[in-house]
Amino acid sequence: MGTSRRIESIYDQPLWASIQARAMRLQRCVCCGHFRYPPAPICARCLSDSAEWLTLQGRGTILSWVIFHRQYFDDFAPPYNAIAVQLAEGPIIVSNLVGVTPPGDWIGSDVELIYERGGECLLPRFKLRAQPLIDADRQLAYP
């Protein structure tokens, strides 16, 4: 086993820099307004190479979730969860839900972005919107 680590290319360096600044930003096509995630040199919708980086609202909805009971990486002790979140801006990202997990099905639960230290860098994670954040090591993205 090994530890997980981010893979950083020239296209997503601004993304990781914005996460470290606690203000996650994504690429948006200047021509058609489509968000590019993962970041890319051209828009998948209109093929334009013009883009701008916009700060996210930090809110979304859980589309899917799973709890892993087997350890695949040393830095993720089981059980741990993975969630697919559709951001208010439209893109879908995969992350983790932190804090108290909701009873029953998580699909449709409203979440908000927080930043949590993961090894050498901050990582984007989510918490339920109705849930207070108690852990001092985690900070809300948009208090």
Describe the model.
The chain is mainly beta and 143 residues long. It has two domains: 7-55, no CATH class; 57-143, OB fold (Dihydrolipoamide Acetyltransferase, E2P). It is 6% helix and 38% strand. The chain has one helix spanning 13-20, and strands at residues 25-29, 35-36, 51-55, 59-68, 80-87, 92-95, 110-118, 121-128, 138-140. Strands 4, 5, 6, 7, 8 and 9 form a six-stranded antiparallel beta sheet that branches. Residues 25-49 form the ChsH2 rubredoxin-like zinc ribbon domain. This is OB-fold domain-containing protein. Residues 53-112 form the ChsH2 C-terminal OB-fold domain. InterPro entries: ChsH2_C, ChsH2_Znr, NA-bd_OB-fold, Thioester_dehydratase-like.
List the helices and strands and how they pair.
Elements: H1 13-20, E1 25-29, E2 35-36, E3 51-55, E4 59-68, E5 80-87, E6 92-95, E7 110-118, E8 121-128, E9 138-140
Antiparallel strand pairs: 1-2, 1-3, 4-5, 4-7, 5-6, 7-8, 7-9
InterPro entries: ChsH2_C, ChsH2_Znr, NA-bd_OB-fold, Thioester_dehydratase-like
Protein name: OB-fold domain-containing protein
Pfam family, one: zf-ChsH2
